[in-house]
Amino acid sequence: MDYENIRALIALILVLAISLWMVIFDRKGKEEEIDEEDKRRKRIRSMAFDAVIIALLIAMSFIPYVGFINVGPFSLTLLHLPVLLGASLFGWKRGLIYGTVFGLLSWAKALSGATSVFDIAFQKIYVAVPPRMLFGLIIGVLSSVTMKIRDEKKRNVFLIVSCFVSTCLHTVLVFGDLFLAESWVFGWVFSDSVAIEGTGITILGFLAIGMVLEASLGAIITPILNKTLKRAIPTLKTAESASM
Question: Which site among 85, 112, 207, 210 is 20 to 30 Å from 27 CA-CA?
């Protein structure tokens, strides 16, 4: 790991620490009005849900062809699905945390087994992590808005659209960051070579197809799991309201 990655990691840890402090501070302010036993139950319940989402992210990251599906030099990801689900249940604060974990795992995966030039680019922490943090934050903010919609049909439609749009934004953010951070990508995009231009169009077409597939999966699976879990575990509604 070079010094550039170390400095970026330290900065990222500070950002995550501040985010966690914000969550804890906000939660303490709200919990002053309830008794200690209720606070303890909510804290344990929140930790349990966080552990499940993070464990799922870790498992999917390192089980072959589960979290990352390699197709040529690219990887389609399903790792966004737990982030979508967790953020849709608990709002932007937890979405930011899950998104950060998503980014760190992407970075660790690239470090442990890069198979293409794109994987090598993701070995730089400032390429792998910030877009995933923003992704978790965006879907969390949209989900916090969704939670306030009283009409169930409108709420479901808004959640579907939010999952699709935020996943598309995730792809744009990832490759936008890659474009800004890696000089070879900039040179490739603006190359005068006909051969490179043709290859670029093919790659962009593949990325567009992958983006739509990932977004469609998120828009279909997340609302179904969200609704199913809320019916199966009524306390999720309490956790949801506490996270806003």
Answer: 85
